[in-house]
Amino acid sequence: MSLNNKGILLESGTNELEIVEFGVANNKFGINVIKVKEIINPVPITVVPHAHPSVEGIISIRGEVLPVVNMATVLGFPVSSNPKQDKFIVCEFNQTKIVFHVHTVSQIHRISWKQIDKPSEMYSGLESQIIGVIKMNEEMVLLLDYEKIVVDINPQSGISVDQLKKLGPRERSNKSIIIAEDSALLRKLLEETLEQAGYGRLTFFENGQDALDYLEDLVNTGRNIENEVQLIITDIEMPKMDGHHLTKRIKDQAELSKLPVIIFSSLITDDLRHKGEMVGATAQVSKPEIVELVKLIDKYVL
């Protein structure tokens, strides 16, 4: 089942997404169709010595060698009782290709980001992996933090302060930057790295709706928006309001439209860059390219 054209056909900035629903043990999960290249039946896996416990090994697909991650192991669930009936979800994000080994794949749903709730802090065990909960037909489908899963397995694939050394000594800046990012891990990493890059006036929001409410409050109280905020950085995938819709709403409002908006997301690929262009993004950078992000911040605020 190839999904190369799925999701990409959605009009940009509608605050909607399509998710592939899959099962692990008796639990239901969702992954954004945009991350999914294809879904295949299991193929023989070559075991790699000293691999991470969640990595079953590697497979070859059309000449590419890709790691296979067992999602049951990642989530602490029982492994499949019938592996031949399982599915492999071939994904691409964060400039990385990876295969998720799941137990079932059921269907594709088209939903609004407004339907996705942020999980309560009370969730036991999985809270660091869950970034959203979708209530669907009296069942709950969980959206996982796939970027975090990959970084946990391969820390070098994430954002690190060390990457900034190539930029040399940095001056301090008092420019104010708004950041919309739903992942607690990413918020922490961005705070550390941008602080190291000289940007200390950072205001974080967990989703696009909260960021937009803040910006509109500034306008409604008569503040000069360009004195209060110099730049906005937004992820794409966020509960309540995604980054494309946030960008569109900012660019559609006269008082906000001059603000530079940089989309910083694992979904920035050659195939998908046009979606950000359609909503008026000033620039787009793929995670985890933190050096490129800092160079763009320098360009638009200094």
Q: What is the C-alpha radius of gyration, as a whole number of Å? A: 20 Å
- What is the beta-strand fraction? 25-35%
Number of domains: 2
Average pLDDT over all residues: 90
CATH architecture of the largest domain: 3-Layer(aba) Sandwich
End-to-end span in angstroms?
47 Å
Q: What is the fold named in CATH at topology level of the largest domain?
A: Rossmann fold
SSE succession: EEEEEHEEEEEEHEHEHHEHEHEH
* Sheet having the most strands: 6 strands, mixed
Q: What is the CATH H-level superfamily of the largest domain?
A: Response regulator
Contiguous helical run count: 8
The helical percent reads 10-25%
Low-confidence stretches: 5-9
Strand order of the largest sheet: 8-1-2-11-10-9
